[in-house]
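Teaching soon. Invent one.


***
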Amino acid sequence: MNAALARPRPRAFAPDVSLVTSGHDVADARLHREVGGALARGLRVEVLGLGSAGNAPHGVHVRTWDRPRGLVRRLLHATALPWRASGRVLLVVDPELVLPALLRARLTGRRLVVDLHEDYAALLRDRAWAGRGLGRLVRLGVGLVVRAAGRADLVVVADDHVPPLHVADARDGAGRRVVVRNLPTAVHLPQPAPMAPAPRLVYVGDVRASRGLHTMLEAVEQAPGWALDVVGPVAREDQDRLDAWRTTSSAAGRVRWHGRRPPREAWQPVADAWAGLCLLDDTPAFRDALPSKVYEYLCSGLPVIVTPRPRMVEIVARSGAGVVVADAAEAAAVLRRWTADPTEPQRLREAARAFARTLGDGTDHYADLAGRVAALGRRRS
């Protein structure tokens, strides 16, 4: 544990809910939104996760660990982590935590909420390590984990298509599967600002090839005068190729790398950008995906440039606040067109703000989840 980074827990502190993650940094945006909903409900929260305690939500007790190296160490860490939590309700947000957390809950009379916010079977098909050695066993275990998740007191998913699709109701007839979409909360987003004089793009999120890393760099290379701010951690497997690009590309000086930031800081570079990028590859995990960053860009008043994944295409059509591009060449052509005629991105920004007003604030979704968690905490075993 990063003991030097852990916030001290008051002696009288007894958490109502422990949010436990073995794979997410405590700067994760969904984690912050879930904690925010719980705090607004008056719940006492502890967070156990990765990274720097300073990036965790304020108002909670937090304990952090360095990310374990190697699959075996990661699984051992995940097995032990639920036993370190002290909340009446355990809220776990990683598939490898489901089985150990279920065991902990059953043996100690705690309630368990499982947030399976992604289709992990599809996601693993995008990861090279999952096709080798122990990674194959992990893929085989996903089905078991999804079935085990159905035994939790509450299952949370981020979208209708995310398994488990069917979870039996509780004995009192209450539904045990709830969809909490990745809609942004206004507290983490900047106020809309006038478009910057110089053309600038922004990308916020995990930085890896399948999420468009090299596509957006190639697009910026082909669009003179454009700058790009990248906020998020770079995947280890893409670092060498990125380092080579930064030493050889003429556009390297136009790209700024901010690394991982907690939500409020992550979105600071966004307000006056000309557009936000979401250039997902056509992979099993992304075919039906609608990343939260698309909503976050739009709610920040930014138009979006996206690749032709069906649900992103639908959002662009509904909002009238974006452009769909097939590849880096098409993206670069759009950027050069906007340089010649800045009224087009300005019009799209106005459409983004109008569409954002129809979405409302995701706070209500997280408040509903917090209410369900609070009710579980009051229920006797």
Q: What stands out?
A: Residues 3-183+362-378 form a domain with the Rossmann fold fold (CATH 3.40.50.2000).
